[in-house]
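Supplementary Methods S3. Input chains for the assembly prediction are listed below.
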Amino acid sequence: MAAGIARREVMVSAAAAALAGVAGRSTGARAQQKPIRLGLITPLSGPQEIVGRDHLAGATIAVNQINQAGGVLGRTLELETRDDKASPAAGVAASKDLVSSGVNLLFGVLSSGVALAIAPTLKGDDAVLILCAASANELTHEQFTPNLFRASDEAYMRQRALAKVVAKDYAAINSWTAINPQTAIGASNWDSFVDGLNQFYPQEAGHNVEVIDALTVKYGATDYKNEIAQLMRRSAEGLYLGVYGGDAVTMLRQAAPYGLARKFKVLVDPGSEYIVAQTLGKSTPVGLWAGIHWYFGAYRGNAINDALYDAYVKSTGNPFPAGYVGEGHAGVLAYAAAIQRAGSTETGAVIGALEGMSFASCKGKRTFRKEDHQAICDVNMVQFAPDDTAAGWKIVGYRVVDGAESIEPPSPGKALVLNTKRQ
Amino acid sequence: MQAAAALAALVMALLLPEIAGQGLVFLAGLLWINMVFGFSWNLMFRQTGLVSFGHAAFFAIGGYGYAVLARAWPGLPPLLVFVAAGALGAVAALVVGVVALRRSLGVYFAIFSLALSQIVAMVISDLPSLGRDDGFAGIRRPVLDLGVATIKLAEGDNYYRFLVLSCALLTLIVWWVTHSRTGRRFRAVQQDAERAAFLGIAVARQRLLCFVIAAAVAAVAGALYGPWLQLLTPELAQWTFSARPILFTLLGGAASFWGPAVGALGFTVLEYATRTLHGVGEITVGGILLIVVLIFPGGIIGGIIGGVRGALGRARPVAGA
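Predicted structure tokens for the full assembly:
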């Protein structure tokens, strides 16, 4: 089991060992010592519970796989879960509760607000946190702390990757606009996307692109008719749906009678995963692109991907695991690899092992940058269309972008500076 | 006896980090702040009969006020910044109260206060300098320069102890106001405003004064909350946060000064005990709260007093909330 651990690069580590076990090559090792406890912090009640359950499902599958393969350092893994209710105060309470019960290796966290609240407490509590979804850029910039790592993509990296895809696939488009929520993350996502448009259109399409000022609406708005009318009058050919998730569903429903989806040549949603298609069904706009943490279909043949997908479908019956399932799974694999590498579960040793470490996951290799602890990983996108099945929608395409091509240089402790700013 | 019990609670609160883990200490810090927040709401409700559905507005004003001042002028003495945050809450209440309390009471004032808190939440959500919906991050715990000694509140449990002592001081202030001549004038207004006016008490002014004091105390509680969590979000001004002191007071017993403290303690214990019951925790807490309120309309304290009286064979109806 320990044979593949020698090299610094591409550590096969416990993740592969787990899959070896799943594939029937179990080491037969029995954990004889106390289990290694990992603390999962994620929303398990309230409106975000559905995402928290995805985190939990992925993490549980990873723990089972690794334990079946003999555990890590001869010890089994054990999951301790706490509900952060997507509230900063509950998140800090959850983190401190885990720390005081002896769990120093934490992961999960969906909301950037919760992550920003926990981050400053980690050093004093001698704990490590691996973020598995929270995407605010500040977490690896001005709010950087050595005890925090992020295994999932950050906002800047993802938005620029989306821009790279559209620059390549929709080279004929000359102008873009957006409808964004009035939140800091909404503005920062759009700025990052524009940053990518300005860089990748000249590179991929050989021409500059015009950016028409974005419309902003209140987060959680229920009436988009004015904005829809304004968008219908715009000359832009590409539309960035900064209002994602439930807001995007509301907006697209109201926009359907106006033919908004047909007016634009391409619609890009930065992060709704399957939510819009699952809700709209047959009304899903043709060709809608959505950012997703992990699309299983893009990694068929990757043993970790296939084992996770099979285990998920077997336990839930749902053939479309959300990207958050993959992120919860990756959080456990990252710790398994780091503990194996460090030969210890002590905070300092695990931080040392995580820095610069590469590990295999359901979406291929991820590498934590030593400087700012951000993982360089693939960015995934899926494209939808309506169809005649009971679900009413299908996936008609996907793209995988190497995060290294869209990520900024590390600058921990300093705010992110965009290459170009919106006019 | 109450003073001895309060002193014992204070000593226990200060010694908590010696015996409990970080998780409990953090929750205890939130509990002390919640207690003060509850005391400030009940000062209005119990003493002058004012019902506010938007008390969180002042908590948020104090929290954000402290955070902005401390960031803009890091050289200011921290104690002065905490006082300034309280003053901000007081001024806001004065401006609002001068208009609102003359024109509306009862349910009208309650709705007015609710609207105020929603406005504060919207303003916070819209201002980039306050972090909008993403929150005001990176609030530092200050360094106290007491002349003879310098205390770094960011180190160890220093901020927790500062929090306990500050909350104790705020409780003492509310206690003093409640039991002073001013507090008795408030009580007279609550019991019969017309008669109080006939006796020469300036009713509107008393209500305004009580509102301003309660807002100032809530604002200081908010200011203490910022460095404890090191992050503030607009939810602090939402109606869900305003509901907390009401819940604490009704659960503990509105008729007693200590009602909000007992209610906050009961609520925190319930939440902590059900923290691993994912999915059923909130139903369990809600169910238990419902049972408590139905069985003890006078809150936990009212129930205990009723129980003791019953045991002594002198059972009398307990004053309800």
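Strands of chain B lie at 136-137, 143-145, 150-152, 231-232. Chain B touches chain A at residues 20-27, 30, 125-126, 128, 131-135, 137-138, 229-231, 233, 235, 275-276, 278-279, 281-282 (CB under 8 Å).
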